[in-house]
From TrEMBL:
Source organism phylogeny: Eukaryota, Metazoa, Spiralia, Lophotrochozoa, Mollusca
GO biological process, one term: protein folding
Organism whose genome encodes this protein: Mytilus galloprovincialis
One Gene Ontology term, aspect cellular component: endoplasmic reticulum membrane
Signal peptide (from-to): 1-21
Subcellular location: Membrane
Residue ranges constituting the J domain according to the UniProt record: 32-98
UniProt keyword annotations, A-Z: Chaperone, Membrane, Signal, Transmembrane, Transmembrane helix
Membrane topology: Multi-pass membrane protein
Xref: PROSITE patterns: DNAJ_1, DNAJ_2
Protein name: DnaJ homolog subfamily C member 25
Transmembrane region(s): 220-239
InterPro entries documented for this protein: DnaJ_domain, DnaJ_domain_CS, DNAJC25-like, J_dom_sf
Claim: tRNA-binding is one of the keywords in the record: no
Protein family per UniProt: Belongs to the DNAJC25 family.
Length: 335
């Protein structure tokens, strides 16, 4: 019986010691915040503020020239106690710790949650982040689209085609027959031609892929809002695919064939759409939606690529470089 009592006593001492060690780093430490300010636990916020101001004037370091270090420490304790008790939520957590000192893990969590948790509503942070990403995304898409237009305006085949369309539709007022009557400078006429060419290319040429003309549906915010709708569409498309081609075993249409080819190639939709029309027609002609045909086609493409590399002087030089040691080789100057 005596041994059991001694064991329980040791456990109680250990628990108290652990509790005190945890409390030493929380709030006012081992001191009582109410006692530091000289108020009771029932004190109102106004009473706490009055008590703090009174003690702050009394223990301000400037009022204690001879014992400035001790006054500074006391002033810090008073300020810390006031910061804890003036905040209603933090005061509630502190009162809970006083009433439940044995729940040191919960008290520890509450203290640091109040002290270091972000004060801004996480929903606002997430909303602002998504907005910034959406703006950057939209700006980047327009930048890519304008770059593609600039390239098309400089490319001869697109430029000549746009000039023919502009002249046939009478969009160029400064044509060859009207240049003598046109009193504008060459720079003004040239500027008008460039604007018309760009407008024709923008209207007549459909740019696919990542350089296509951006829409609001490409923005992250819109995609998140319409996510349930897109999810329903995908589930419906998947169920339709299973029913039509797995259960009923119908033949694939052109859209389904291209989908399988893109899947085999492991290309994103934007990347596959950026391919030329004749390339997709070639894929369909070779029936690459069939796994065996695609595997053979891929092996042939890889063999052709290796043959081209083998004939390339630059690749031969690279192979000699790698054979001699590559990036990790050591050299002590010319041999």
């Amino acid at each position: 019986m005596a041994n059991r009592f001694a064991f329980l006593l040791i456990l109680a001492v250990i628990q108290v010691d652990v509790s005190l060690s945890f409390m030493a780093g929380l709030y006012c430490g081992l001191d009582n915040c109410y006692e530091i300010l000289g108020v009771t636990r029932d004190a109102t916020k106004t009473e706490i503020t009055k008590a703090y101001r009174k003690l702050a004037r009394k223990w301000h370091p400037d009022m204690h020239k001879t014992e400035k270090e001790a006054a500074t420490e006391k002033f810090r304790e008073i300020g810390n106690a006031y910061e804890i008790l003036k905040d209603e939520e933090q005061r509630t957590d502190y009162d809970y710790m006083l009433d439940h000192p044995d729940e040191f893990f919960a008290n520890y969590y509450n203290y640091y949650k109040r002290r270091y948790a972000p004060k801004v509503d996480p929903r606002i942070v997430i909303g602002v982040t998504i907005t910034v990403i959406s703006l950057i995304q939209y700006w980047g898409a327009w930048n890519n689209y304008n770059s593609a237009l600039d390239y098309a305006c400089k490319e001869a085949k697109y430029r000549h085609r746009a000039m023919d369309i502009a002249q046939s539709e009478g969009l160029l007022t400064g044509g060859k027959n009207n240049r003598k009557k046109d009193k504008r400078s060459k720079e003004e006429i040239k500027s008008e031609e460039e604007a018309v060419i760009r407008s024709v290319i923008e209207d007549k040429i459909h740019i696919h892929g990542g350089y296509g003309k951006p829409t609001v549906y490409d923005i992250l915010w819109v995609q998140i809002v319409f996510l349930p709708y897109y999810l329903v569409l995908y589930i419906g498309w998947w169920c339709r695919w299973i029913w039509k081609f797995t259960i009923c075993r119908n033949e694939y249409g052109e859209e389904e064939k291209l989908h399988l080819i893109r899947k085999f190639m492991k290309l994103a939709t934007a990347q596959f759409d950026a391919l030329e029309e004749h390339e997709r027609e070639e894929f369909l002609r070779k029936e690459l939606w069939k796994k065996d045909n695609f595997t053979s086609w891929k092996e042939n493409k890889e063999a052709e690529q290796k043959a081209k590399l083998a004939e390339s002087g630059r690749y031969k030089s690279y192979r000699r470089y790698m054979k001699s040691g590559g990036p990790g080789q050591m050299s002590f100057g010319p041999e």
